[in-house]
Amino acid sequence: MTFATEDNITDIALERWRTAHDPRLRELMTAAVQHLHDFAREVNFTESEWLAATEFLTATGQISDAKRQEFILLSDVLGLSMLTVMMNARTSAGATPNSVLGPFHIDASPVIDRNAALPGDLPGEALYVCGTVRDLDGTPIAGALLDMWQADEDGTYETQIPDSEARLRGLQRTDAQGRFAFWTIAPKGYSIPMDGPVGTLVRQTRISHYRPAHVHFLLSAEGYKPVTTQLFRAGAEYIDTDVVFGARPELVVPFVARPAATMVDDRVIAQPHLRVDYDFVLEKADALAIALTPA
Ligand code: BEZ
Ligand code: FE
Q1: Which of 5, 142, 198, 262 could potentially form a cystine with 258 if both were Cys, beta carbons 3.0 to 4.6 Å apart?
Q2: Partners of 218 in beta bridges
């Protein structure tokens, strides 16, 4: 029988966690134990710091519910969410890269006809978003589904407003030429929720707690890898300090100012507006993934 000492406790803990039945759980838990023990030794972890950490994690759980997920926010500001996205959702050169989903997506948004507006009728600069969804070889993808959502001028999402009607979110399928187009208002940059333990932690640093202005998209099409992404306004504040590391150069697009009386499709638009043209590029799902996808 071996009693634990400061010197051998890591080896004993590793030996115990190596008994995990599932090989992947074994790998995850032994690596976690090794890194946690190394961390504690490296920083000379004190008992009061250990207690503060447990209190922080308790508060993080207590403030979380179906609409608010403070643990995900913690992962976001640590860069862990985006690292996990980048490692797992790698795309080939030329394909639209992925970004974080964020906490504000709502399923089953209203369908938005081509050239119609996202619902809400909210104040803001008029923005026309259009483009195509294409294959890596440039072929337009007809019937691709775009699911988009964004914050309003104050940086507020629908899920943050109790009992709101559908607001600044919608679904649209690309037409036979792979085209999509909708009207909305230009989103503004906004702060992540700062009234919880993550905010308290971030305030003890010089980290900017803002995200740059962006519109979220989920893209899917039969036979292609789905993409979770965002388009960012070129030149927007916080573009190079995004608190959740979600901005990527390929996703930064100009919001081009157009004067009154310019054409959109066959219509003259009376008011000045902004316009984003963007071609999303999807890559084919591998044959095995297609075979395993339920019909
Ligand atoms: C968002 O873009 O909606 C978001 C992402 C991560 C944390 C907070 C907000
Ligand atoms: Fe967002």
Answers
A1: 262
A2: 147, 228
Q: From the CB of 104, is ligand 1 less than 6 Å away?
A: yes
Residues with CB under 5 A from ligand 2 (ion): 102
CA distance 14 to 65: 33
- Where do the H-state alpha helices sit in the chain? 9-17, 23-43, 47-62, 70-77, 80-88, 197-202, 287-292
Q: Is 244 in the pocket of ligand 1 (CB under 6 A)?
A: yes
Q: pLDDT higher for 290 or 75?
A: 75
CA 33 – CA 13 distance, rounded (Å):
7
pLDDT tens digits, 190-222: 999 999 999 999 999 999 999 999 999 999 999
Cα torsion for 86, 91, 93, 94, to the nearest 10°?
-110
What predicted TM-score, i.e. pTM, was given to this entire model? Answer: 0.91
The answer to whether 214 touches 223, Cβ cutoff 8 Å, is: no
